[in-house]
């Protein structure tokens, strides 16, 4: 696999904590994670005790991940076109409100399986809004070289609290009851909300006005669909999420049916998973130095498969805890790798949308997986469900050698500086369509290189918003080539050039070097008009077309 190991070249893991805003929000997030994990243990065990349906138990995981599948793409577009801090505040408020409602329902004895799922869905909506905005804000708060360390820190932090929070949840549940666990979670979810309200940061301002949400969504989907590395990462993340979620979705059933344990045993199992994830996260950078990235991801998927097989056959709590530690290590290594790939491959103008599409698909995979493995467990057996999940994880491990990610192939994703071109007409933002035409004179011996560069340029322009791209050859002068493309409006054309990265600009220079004429290739811009267009001050109808 040809991949630049960002964890080797980036900053050390603690480096981002020297930034006051990041440190404050990250620290408060760990407090909220602790409360969320205590609540997760309480909800999982509460569901086991109030319903005999294996499917309903497995759907607890689906209830919090399904909203991300539904809302993440819209949330990512909002994060790229509005204040990411404001989006985080709204999302964190929803999470806090859901936790408070859960505690109130428990206090008054209103808890039911469907209410638990509904409040989980509400919290999931908050996560769907907050997570893309928070992850996209990391690049605004920190330098680019600190992003891999920041992603690792976020993963380590969550899994450190998983190891403590899960055990703590079991103790609180066994000694004080579910209401105490829900109250603890409700209070802890106020910490990140307070931190975001207290800290302010600013994204690099765009010289262009904000896009409409519908346009932003369409452009984000277009970019993601045309970027092969991000597309492959999303496909692999979806498959991994679908298979690996069996570990967490079926864990309450493992604790109750396979191990005959209570809430403390369930908390210990969760803690084992978190401890393995924490150890792997702390050693993530070292592992990426000594093991090729693709092999490391394959080993991580195999580790999760080993965890599933072990849980299917063991009846020992210590052995199950050890298996979950192995699964937790594979879990965090895989998700950290996927997160870093998407973060570093995405330009700043679209990073919120690519992250949200990534979260949407992996959340959809997790939600579908929770339903599938719960159904298999209910219709056949818990062991059969875990065995099938293990087989699926082995296929996921093999898929990495088919859906490879060549991070770094696209070069530097930093945006370029593009001054507005000088035009004689008074164009409005909505004026259009705009057509661009560039003529080249290319020697016959350079055609292979010309085609290679044009192929790269075509995809770069398409990702940035160009439409109807063509390359034409002059029949009378075969050395003359014309590149054309269109944008729907003048503002779309300006956005396109602001979105092109420095590596995209390098392709333009390579094409210019192949141009034979001493006069550099120039791009002509025209606005397309129909013959029945009305005359306006900015677009007068030519005299020959007037009646």
UniProtKB/TrEMBL annotation:
Q: What is its main location?
A: membrane
- Provide an example Pfam family for this protein: MFS_3
Membrane topology classification: Multi-pass membrane protein
Q: Which InterPro entries match?
A: MFS_trans_sf (IPR036259), TM_effector (IPR010290)
**One Gene Ontology CC term in the entry:** plasma membrane
Annotated region (Disordered), positions in chain: 527-547
Q: Where is the composition biased (Basic residues)?
A: 536-547
Name of the protein in its database record = MFS transporter
- Lineage of the organism: Bacteria, Pseudomonadati, Pseudomonadota, Alphaproteobacteria, Hyphomicrobiales
